[in-house]
Amino acid sequence: xxxxxxxxxxxxxxxxxxxxxxxxxxxxxxxxxxxxxxxxxxxxxxxxxxxxxxxxxxxxxxxxxxxxxxxxxxxxxxxxxxxxxxxxxxxxxxxxxxxxxxxxxxxxxxxxxxxxxxxxxxxxxxxxxxxxxxxxxxxxxxxxxxxxxxxxxxxxxxxxxxxxxxxxxxxxxxxxxxxxxxxxxxxxxxxxxxxxxxxxxxxxxxxxxxxxxxxxxxxxxxxxxxxxxxxxxxxxxxxxxxxxxxxxxxxxxxxxxxxxxxxxxxxxxxxxxxxxxxx
Length: 279
Known about the structure:
mainly alpha; 15 helices; 0% strand; globular; glycosyltransferase; TriPribosyl-deP-CoA_syn_CitG; nucleotide-binding; triphosphoribosyl-dephospho-CoA synthase activity
C-alpha cells in the first residue's frame, strides 16, 4: 500500500479530491428521480442524505490512496493494476460499511471512481496529459477482459450483477469501465454544455443517463419493464424540454414503483470528474 508521504506528494488539483467533491455534488443535487437528495430519500427506505455524506467522508481518504497507488505503480502493465488496487478497494468498501452500518451507499462509485483515480495517478506519474480521452482509455486498459473473466465464465451467479448478466446479458459497471465509459462519451459529454447553469447541466446529464444507461439497479428492482419505464420517461422529457417540476413528478412516479437509477447516479459523479479535464 502506498505510504503517507506518497499520498501527500500529489500535485493539485488532485483527481481524488475532484472525485470526492463530485460525490457530494451528486447527492445534494435536487430533484433526482428515485434517488436520495436534499428533498427526500427517493425509493430508499434505508438511506438518507446524512448517511450518504458519512459514506463519502469515509471513502474520500481511500480515493487519494487509489491515485497514489497509480502513481507508485505507473510502470506496471495496465492489466495488472486491477489486482494491485484490490486491497485498497476492499478496505474502502469496509470503511463505507462502517460509516453506514452495513448499508451499500457507494459500492458502484468506489469501483468506477477508484479506477479513475488510479488511472490519473498512472498518467501523471508517466508525464502523460490528463485528458478525458486519456483517462477513459487508461481505465479501459486496466479492465481489459473483465467482463469475460467475471461474468461470461461465471457458472454459479452469486451477485445481482452476475445474475443479470446470465438473464439479460447486462454487463453493468464492469462493462462500462471496460468500454472506457462509453455511455458517457456517447450520450453525455457531447451534450454537457447544452445547459449553461451548473445545476441544470448536472440534472440534464442525469436525465440523459437515465435515458440511455442500461442501469442494472433498475432491472434488479423492477425488471426490464422498470428499466424501459425510466428510459422512456427520461427520453420524453429530453425531447419535450423539462423543468424542475417535471423531475419532481418523475421522482414521485419512480418512488411509487420503487425504482432507483443508482448506476446512473454513479456515472454522473464520474462525468463530473472527467469534464473537469480537456477532451
